Amino acid sequence: MAIATINPATGETVRTFDELGEAELQEKIALAHERWRTYRTTGFQERAAYMHAAADLFEKEADVVARLMTTEMGKTLAAARNEALKCAHGMRYYAEHAAEFLADEPLADPSQVGAERALGRYQPLGPVLAVMPWNFPMWQVMRFAAPALMAGNVGLLKHASNVPQCALYLEDVFRRAGFPEGCFQTLLISSKRVESILRDPRVVAATLTGSEPAGRSVAAICGDEVKHTVLELGGSDPFIVMPSADLDHAAATAVDARVQNNGQSCIAAKRFIVHTGIFDAFTEKFVARMRELKVGDPFEPSTDVGPVATEQGRADIEELVDDAVSAGATVLCGGQRPDGPGWFYPPTVITGITRDMRIYLEEVFGPVASLYRAADIDEALEIANATSFGLGSNAWTNDEAEQERFVTDLEAGQVFINGKTVSYPELPFGGTKRSGYGRELAAHGIREFCNLKTIWIGSGAASS
Ligand code: NAP
């Protein structure tokens, strides 16, 4: 895949970039390794000062950052601006909490283990490679960079090939914020060159957010090298609606949960599973709202849904929809690409889906909702869990027993009751099953790239 900015709203190539040469790549890895030796000794206060300065820049430049994102991957300008501000919030969160999250953990009674002092201490690992996707081109990176840098690691970023300007902005913003040269570097390289970096002994760990095949490849190489990995992969999140739910609120949130980020979010609700008693009423409200959405230029303030980020991405969506329709599924709205330039695809609702259709099992990365009817809570859970993914999940019910059942039985990294799945710096984020492993955000996210060192200190005197 060429490294280029291609505007998905027009299909026009705005700018192309040369890949890093091998010598330049080696220089960058060497710099990361060298920088880490000194950066690891800096204190939380110094790191926090840099991080707050980077957050200030993100806030000040939110409009510029937003335009970059919208140009490169087509999210609406309003969504892009929110993403820039969310990055600043996440950076400040780790600037303020890193010292607390990584504080020593002393054993209250060290004599239990025959020591004078015994404790756990979190120490940084070294240069970490982050392989990142284009869908939240700033926020996905920040979820790694803010905690990793606050912990005393240094970062190397291999960003998706269609967001090079976002990738370069990120390197630039950390440099301008005062982080020493080499703390955070962008590598403009193709995915083929990831393996050599993972096998380089100077790079000690990796995190990947993206598709299952990419995650499998990185994990296999890191397994071979015995290097720690965090994987944030795909999702096909269920959104279950039960009779006690507020249907208007559920339908409005369902639309937002499906079409956010032009339908290209790992935690977008993708499968809507509705109790038979309210199926018709919910469907009417949901489909009406999906039809009302305005699809168009993501720079236009009235636009709800912009284009799909890549031509291939739209072709993948069409393939899944066409496969379902040819096997007998019913399209309630959308389902046909519009004429004209750009990679637009309309908000679409499909029902009558059976287990033999690809859409039953595969993730649709675009504004397409699959609608299922469930006879009762058991069937709703069965459909919800009939996927290899386990990222987010949503259930709408005001019945406390049902809420508890969903919390316990949904196979997912996150359960949101009467709401849509959202990532917050304050809450751990991650998946189960084939959605990946490890956790980002909250205290867990910063500890992923630390060595928890056990320290045992005796008195030095011979025991009598
Ligand atoms: P992708 O094709 O896997 O790309 C993600 C990143 O991996 C890009 O930087 C890509 O580089 C690189 N890559 C691709 N194949 C690779 C390989 N074999 N070895 C090493 N690196 C490789 O995914 P995408 O289409 O951009 O993103 C969509 C997917 O990401 C969806 O499945 C979505 O659900 C998932 N996602 C998950 C989360 C989460 O937090 N769980 C968040 C966002 C997205 P190139 O661009 O150069 O190919």
Account of the protein in words:
- It is a single chain.
- The chain has 464 residues and is α/β, with parallel strands linked by helices.
- The protein has helices spanning 22-39, 44-60, 62-73, 77-101, 139-151, 164-176, 194-198, 212-225, 247-259, 279-292, 311-326, 358-361, 377-385, 400-409, 442-447; strands at 4-7, 12-16, 105-106, 117-124, 127-131, 154-158, 184-186, 205-209, 228-232, 237-241, 269-275, 330-333, 348-351, 368-374, 394-396, 416-417, 436-437, 450-457.
- It has two domains: 4-234 and 430-455, 3-Layer(aba) Sandwich (Aldehyde Dehydrogenase, Chain A, domain 1); 237-386 and 392-417, 3-Layer(aba) Sandwich (Aldehyde Dehydrogenase, Chain A, domain 2).
- It is built from 15 helices and 18 strands.
- A seven-stranded mixed beta sheet has the order 12-13-14-11-10-15-16, with helices on both faces. The protein has a six-stranded mixed beta sheet with strand order 7-6-5-8-9-17, sandwiched between helices.
- Helix 2 runs antiparallel to helix 4 (77-101), helix 2 runs antiparallel to helix 5 (139-151) and helix 4 runs parallel beside helix 5 (139-151).
- The longest helix has 25 residues, at 77-101.
- The model has no long low-confidence stretch (mean pLDDT 98).
- The chain binds NADP nicotinamide-adenine-dinucleotide phosphate (NAP).
- NADP nicotinamide-adenine-dinucleotide phosphate binds at residues 1, 131-135, 140, 158-161, 190-191, 194, 209-211, 214, 217-218, 232-235, 266, 363, 365, 391, 431, 435-436.
